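Hi U.,

Before I forget, here's the chain from the pilot set. I'm dumping it here mostly so it's searchable later in email.
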Amino acid sequence: MTPTEPTKVFISYSHDSQAHADEAFALANRLRADGIDCSIDQYEESPPEGWPQWMERQIRESQFVLVVCSEFYLNKLHGKVEAGQGLGVKWEGKLVYQHLYDEAANSKFIPVLLANGKPEHVPMPLKGATYYHPAQQADFDRLYARLRGVPLKQKPALGELKPLPPRERKTNPGLFITGFIDIPLWDKAKWKGASYICDANQPPILGLLFRNKEAAIQIFAQWYVRIGRADDYEEMRISIVEGDVRGEAPGYTVYISANTDNILDRAEDLGLNVANEHVMILGRMLRMNPTPESKNLEMFKQAVQRFGSFKLCPAINETEGVRLLPYSLLKKEIHFRHVSEITSSDDMDYAVLKKTDPDGKKRSP
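Structure:
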């Protein structure tokens, strides 16, 4: 349709009664009087190509089809009227359904309700479309504007973005300064071990065994507030360092601390002004002394490599065995290391080597 061509519209309706047909005819006349090229079967006596092809052509060539919805129209579509009645509606209805099926969207068919029409008479494929009561002047004006492609209310031009007030820069974000270890709470929780649960169908679990259930739950509750159920920025750093440490029994050390760079990255994304020199990382470590034949850690390492992630959970010992508490933190990074790799005081796991000799004096590694 070029700008000079009128909008072509077809009215599909059912011959419920003479009054209903007259109302549909009056709508067509009113639209034509207002410059809309509207067609209806009452303008034709007997089209040369026959009614079925004529109806198909009208639907195909029209920019819009006004579907006059009534109880009889709907029942005929559903095959609930006597045989031989409303053959035109049945044919037009099939054409409407086919067009909607082919296009997978509706910009052509517009539900219209005349005197005997109700919203519940709108066929299912058209229920998501706006319907109109053209007998009401306001609705006719809305329908006419839609057929013309000119909305009644014009959208104003997009203005320029106004400057936002400066975002407040916070300078005392305590959570970012203290890392993940609340010392009094950890002292109360009494961390005493680590357990590993591996399943072929899901990421493995690293369980932190505590003596105090309530304090253990509170530790993870604080972590939930801090980073949620997944450590997306990998702010928490977990190392498992194998190898002999002077003054310690054979085994390995589980060390929980924090990734300073990742903490600062998240703080920056959140608009927090945290200077690097103001970040103090607190950590907690535990020496594990498994039997030489234990394969638990090795199985856990293999499972982490296979899934690319693991869950960190609080756990307690009960008579029946280890019980996981209803908290879990999803992580993708864990550092499996050997003490021989730690050769500098700048190493993030250097604290693992700073142990106390049997005489009680602190020593350097």
